[in-house]
């Protein structure tokens, strides 16, 4: 009887183990089925992009001395995916930058020439189009805001020219910033294998929806210095891409909202020094002249805590959120200013295409020329004093030094603050101009300037 009971128990245990094994296999088969279904649905909309671009003429410097000429064209390749039956294809800006000729090969091996509709280097996105193509499959776009760490993800593209390659992994992280890959960053990180040639292809979820545009990898390199994947890939969230793609399609370029401030993260040390409860928000380091921020009353040292009632985590988040706004839109900011919270209403402007040129233009608009010295200066106001860490709200800052001028020969630079001229304190641009007029030609004059946190003497001759 006891022996029979033992045999029955062993049989039941064996059956239980076998059932668990079958259940495990069923789970694996369901995952496998999900992968194959997604690949079958999305792959037809994924394309292989070949690019021919003109060789940089500066390369002839390296080839010329030996009697050789650089090849007239360079070739590159990447991936993309169709988003519209009319032939619109999303890819990376770096894939098609400087393209002279673009060739697109579909999953069914049809090939077409493509035109560049527009690209946005700031986000590394581009839109191209093929025409006269019928029955085009289209990739479905998902919601990248709902992506969670640990979810399955598939990357589809043409690594090393191997078309229609599908790799699988998980979402490793979201919101990756400060990678130095683009001006606007909010990357999804994945360990799905991404390699050179995958750029511009889709990162998709198990519902077959595109959640990101594969853009870059953190790579190692082999003995021939060729990059390879080490399990760290980055994709541009599709929600960020939607706005860019829409602008590229409608306008050929991207219109971004603009506040007009230079911002930085709040460190633990800064939070303690400013008596903040936490190191959250974005610290205003500069307010650009003529900007929406200046017109609305922003000041250097303000810490932006909220935008339209939603907390601001850090500087990168604020930059991305402002960029997505429509110029002319009214926005309310909550800021901490010297321990007190206040609200600032701003009418968002349009981000200048060249911020450096804008900055110089605005600075010069407030500058005045000291022609005899060959420079332009601006009075130091409270904002400039705070921005540059000056003890006094007086003196003049150099905004421009003319080539070949006495100022350039003396070693004066843009953004130097002139503290003394000919051993006399300089309080304004007017004073400096009068002092310069009294200098005898050929006579050396001592100039004391504040530069990079310290003062130094220079000698100038008219």
Secondary-structure topology with pairs:
Blueprint: H1 2-42, E1 46-54, H2 60-63, E2 73-82, E3 88-91, H3 93-96, E4 99-105, E5 111-120, E6 125-130, E7 140-141, E8 152-157, E9 165-176, E10 187-190, E11 202-204, E12 209-221, E13 227-237, H4 238-251, E14 257-258, E15 261-265, H5 268-273, E16 282-287, H6 292-296, E17 303-307, E18 310-311, H7 315-323, E19 330-337, E20 340-347, E21 349-350, H8 355-365, E22 368-370, E23 375-379, H9 382-388, E24 396-401, H10 406-410, E25 417-421, E26 424-425, H11 429-437, E27 445-451, E28 454-460
In CATH terms, the superfamily of the largest domain is: Trypsin-like serine proteases
Topology-level CATH name of the largest domain:
Thrombin, subunit H
Strand content: 35-45%
Q: Main β-sheet: number of strands, strand sense, barrel status? A: 7 strands, antiparallel
Bulk shape? elongated
Report the top-level CATH class of the largest domain. Mainly Beta
- Find the structural class using helix and strand composition: alpha+beta
Count of DSSP helices? 11
Low-pLDDT segments = 58-70
What is the CA-based Rg, rounded? 30 Å
Whole-number total of structural domains: 4
Got a strand count? 28
Folded structure, characterized:
This protein folds into 4 domains: 44-60 and 71-130, Thrombin, subunit H; 140-251, Trypsin-like serine proteases (Thrombin, subunit H), CATH 2.40.10; 257-350, PDZ domain (Pdz3 Domain); 366-460, Pdz3 Domain (Roll), CATH 2.30.42. Strands 22, 23, 24, 25, 26, 27 and 28 form a 7-stranded antiparallel β-sheet that branches. A hairpin with a 5-residue loop joins strand 2 (73-82) and strand 3 (88-91). With 462 residues, the chain is α+β, with helices and mostly antiparallel strands. It contains 11 helices and 28 strands.
């Amino acid at each position: 009887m006891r022996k029979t009971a033992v045999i029955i128990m062993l049989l039941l245990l064996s059956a239980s183990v076998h059932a668990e094994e079958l259940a495990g296999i069923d789970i694996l088969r369901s995952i496998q089925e999900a992968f194959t279904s997604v690949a079958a649905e999305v792959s037809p909309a994924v394309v292989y992009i070949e690019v021919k671009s003109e060789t940089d003429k500066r390369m002839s410097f390296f080839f010329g001395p030996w009697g050789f000429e650089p090849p007239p064209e360079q070739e590159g390749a990447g991936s993309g995916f169709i988003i519209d039956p009319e032939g619109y294809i999303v890819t990376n800006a770096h894939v098609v930058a400087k393209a002279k000729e673009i060739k697109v090969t579909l999953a069914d091996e049809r090939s077409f020439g493509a035109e560049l509709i527009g690209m946005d280097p700031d986000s590394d996105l581009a839109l191209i189009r093929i025409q006269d193509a019928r029955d085009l499959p289209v990739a479905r776009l998902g919601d990248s805001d709902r992506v969670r760490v640990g979810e399955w993800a598939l990357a589809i593209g043409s690594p090393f020219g191997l078309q229609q390659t599908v790799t699988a992994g998980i979402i490793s992280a979201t919101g990756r910033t400060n990678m130095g890959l683009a001006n606007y960053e909010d990357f999804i990180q994945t360990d799905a294998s991404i390699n050179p040639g995958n750029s511009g292809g889709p990162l998709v979820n198990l519902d077959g929806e595109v959640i990101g545009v594969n853009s870059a990898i953190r790579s190692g390199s082999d003995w021939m210095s060729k990059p390879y994947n080490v399990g760290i890939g980055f994709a541009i969230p599709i929600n960020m891409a939607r706005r860019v793609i829409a602008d590229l399609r409608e306008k050929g370029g991207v219109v971004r909202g603009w506040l007009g401030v230079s911002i930085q993260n709040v460190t633990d040390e800064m939070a303690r020094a400013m008596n903040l409860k936490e190191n959250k928000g974005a610290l205003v380091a500069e307010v650009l002249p003529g900007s929406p921020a200046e017109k609305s009353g922003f000041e250097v040292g303000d810490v932006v805590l909220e935008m339209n009632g939603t907390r601001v985590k850090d500087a990168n988040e604020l930059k991305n959120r402002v960029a997505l706004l429509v110029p002319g839109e009214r926005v309310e900011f909550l800021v901490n200013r010297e321990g007190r919270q206040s609200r600032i209403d701003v009418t968002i402007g349009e981000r200048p295409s060249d911020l450096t040129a804008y900055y110089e233009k605005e600075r010069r608009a407030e500058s005045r020329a000291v022609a005899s010295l060959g420079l332009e200066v601006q009075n130091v106001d409270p904002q400039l004093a705070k921005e540059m860490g000056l003890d006094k709200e007086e003196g003049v800052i150099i905004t421009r030094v003319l080539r070949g001028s006495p100022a350039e020969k003396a070693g004066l630079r843009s953004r130097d603050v002139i503290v003394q001229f000919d051993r006399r304190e300089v309080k304004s641009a007017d004073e400096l101009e009068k002092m310069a007029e009294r200098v005898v030609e050929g006579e050396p004059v001592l100039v004391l300037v504040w530069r990079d946190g310290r003062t130094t003497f220079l000698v100038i001759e008219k």
